[in-house]
């Protein structure tokens, strides 16, 4: 695969993205779904909730590369539009993750009661993504149909892909049964495809491996520098 994001990035994203979403979903499953309980859990279990929300946010970002890879394999206009819808929905979930992070900071500095009151007062505020919320669910249904029509996925795995549209949307959402169904379905749909993409081609050259290994500490250093502001 010579097109962006490439076989290795695309295949890895198809495997890792759904797994990260499932991990984040399961980590916050012990706590009640609605935001007051999520904020209380952030105060009582900060490490666990940080891990849960971080894994879920990372999964949405990684899934962006997975969706581009899948849309390219569909190679039809419907797949293009489905990819656009799903990507916009993932952008919106990443926006929600920023709000979740801000709320977590409020809990840490001012306590869950203050954070709950502030979130409740501003929960219905309109913003750009308020008008695009339909993409979070609708995009997965269109993408699943396009994947089935193109033959990239069979009936069962297309239905599994469509189940990603069952994931609740909005800020500070916990886990419910549909959350687990959606993320497990996403894993069932995309992980086997990711493995196939990774295996479908020659092994990387020694030069490519050495470049990748050398880039790891550089990326790590840039990540540390980024935290400085």
TrEMBL record:
Q: Keyword check for Transmembrane helix, yes or no.
A: yes
Which regions span the lipid bilayer? 52-71, 78-99, 128-148, 155-172, 178-199, 208-228
Q: Which domain of life is it from?
A: Bacteria
Q: Keyword Transmembrane: yes or no? A: yes
Keyword annotations: Membrane, Transmembrane, Transmembrane helix
The protein, known as: Uncharacterized protein
UniProt organism field: Saccharothrix variisporea
């Amino acid at each position: 695969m010579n097109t962006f994001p490439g076989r290795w990035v695309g295949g890895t994203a198809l495997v890792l993205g759904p797994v990260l979403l499932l991990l984040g979903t399961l980590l916050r499953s012990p706590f009640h779904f609605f935001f007051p309980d999520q904020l209380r859990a952030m105060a009582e279990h900060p490490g666990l909730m940080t891990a849960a929300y971080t894994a879920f946010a990372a999964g949405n970002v990684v899934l962006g590369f997975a969706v581009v890879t899948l849309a390219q394999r569909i190679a039809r206009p419907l797949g293009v539009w489905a990819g656009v819808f799903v990507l916009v929905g993932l952008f919106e979930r990443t926006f929600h993750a920023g709000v979740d992070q801000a709320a977590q900071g409020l809990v840490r500095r001012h306590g869950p009661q203050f954070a709950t009151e502030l979130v409740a007062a501003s929960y219905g505020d309109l913003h750009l993504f308020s008008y695009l919320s339909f993409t979070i669910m609708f995009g997965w249904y269109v993408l699943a149909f396009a994947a089935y029509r193109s033959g990239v996925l069979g009936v069962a795995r297309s239905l599994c892909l469509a189940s990603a549209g069952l994931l609740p949307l909005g800020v500070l959402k916990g886990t419910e049964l549909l959350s687990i169904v959606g993320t497990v379905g996403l894993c069932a749909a995309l992980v086997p495809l990711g493995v196939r993409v990774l295996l479908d081609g020659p092994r990387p050259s020694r030069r490519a491996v050495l470049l990748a290994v050398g880039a790891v500490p550089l990326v790590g250093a840039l990540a540390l520098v980024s935290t400085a502001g």
